[in-house]
Write a structure and sequence with these properties.
The protein is built from 18 helices and no strands. By secondary structure, the chain is mainly alpha-helical. It has a single domain, classed as Tetracycline Repressor, domain 2 (Orthogonal Bundle), CATH 1.10.357.140. It is globular.
């Protein structure tokens, strides 16, 4: 089992493209988690949903590309910042002990410089936005900066991650409409509960090591009720999204666009093996596809409203 998990969660990946990188560059690539793009997808989707539900996905395809670049850069920056703050905790958890900062393959000074470069790329993306969207993006930085400390003070750091990882919706919508709308707030709220659900699944991988290191998580708090908790979070997310889509197109047929997503989330909960870290990671990663199904729902409703 340990070998299987290591193959799926390679914190010091030496194979494939990453293995071909020069040894001086490879640790920085790993520090930003570029070897694991799932986080960039999950950061990108809420912004893409907002643009699609607002009815601008096709006309503003260029903005979708800018948000994709921003998601890659800022997710990388977030990972670097998180590892800077968590470097001592990471040394106590088997899955994270080999991360570049925790292992010493990247110095703290170099990590800060790498963080600055990634934020510079984010700034370039920020300059593509209108004033309201840019202000919303800047406001998010406070929540981003606070996130790494949440696992020390609350059993629900996943809720704070939901606030952060869903923020793209609060940037994407005003970027194409110039304002905020009730549908957006329900889209955003639903995304928060979606994130809590999938990150609880992710936290199941580390539940034993987290207990030893004193790291708090929703997975530890829920314990043997984790499956029910995840199901509840997903149900709340779907309810919020039904309301959001109804605000744009108040027809029953419009809400049916969420059916494929509902089935997929139901499969995640039903098929989850709570005691298998490899299965938890696989279910977590499947949310890349869940995000795509939600995007299609928003695209259909937004384009036909």
């Amino acid at each position: 089992m340990a070998d299987e998990v290591e193959q799926i969660v390679p914190d010091s990946e030496q194979r494939g493209f990453v293995g071909q990188l020069p040894s001086a560059i490879r640790p920085f690539w790993l520090l930003a988690r570029f070897d694991r793009p799932i986080g960039s997808w999950l950061l990108f989707w809420p912004a893409a949903w907002a643009i699609a539900l607002a009815g601008h996905a096709i006309r503003r395809w260029d903005l979708l590309l800018w948000f994709a670049v921003g998601a890659i850069a800022m997710r990388g920056a977030g990972c670097v910042y998180n590892d800077i703050v968590d470097r001592d905790l990471d040394r106590k958890v088997a899955r994270t002990a080999s991360r570049p900062l925790a292992s010493g393959s990247v110095s703290l000074k170099a990590a800060w410089a790498w963080l600055g470069l990634l934020c510079l790329i984010g700034l370039i993306v920020l300059l593509q936005l209108n004033l309201m969207a840019a202000i919303s993006a800047i406001v998010s930085l406070a929540a981003v900066a606070a996130y790494p400390y949440m696992k020390r003070v609350t059993w629900w750091p996943q809720a704070w991650l939901g606030i952060v990882f869903s923020w793209g919706a609060l940037v994407g919508w005003p970027a194409v409409t110039g304002d905020f709308a009730p549908a957006l707030w329900m889209l955003y709220t639903g995304s928060i509960f979606w994130v809590i659900g999938y990150d609880t699944i992710y936290a199941l991988q580390d539940i034993e090591d987290d207990a030893l290191a004193g790291v708090k998580s929703s997975a530890r708090k829920l314990g043997r009720h984790a499956r029910r908790g995840i199901a509840l979070f997903y149900l709340i997310a779907l309810a919020c999204w039904v309301y959001a889509l109804w605000q744009i197109r108040p027809q029953f047929l419009g809400t049916l666009a969420l059916l494929p997503l509902a089935l997929h989330l139901g499969w995640q909960v039903a098929a989850l093996d709570r005691g298998d870290p490899a299965d938890a990671l696989a279910k977590f990663r499947s949310n890349r596809f869940a995000g795509f199904l939600m995007f299609l729902a928003c695209l259909v409703v937004g384009s036909t409203a």
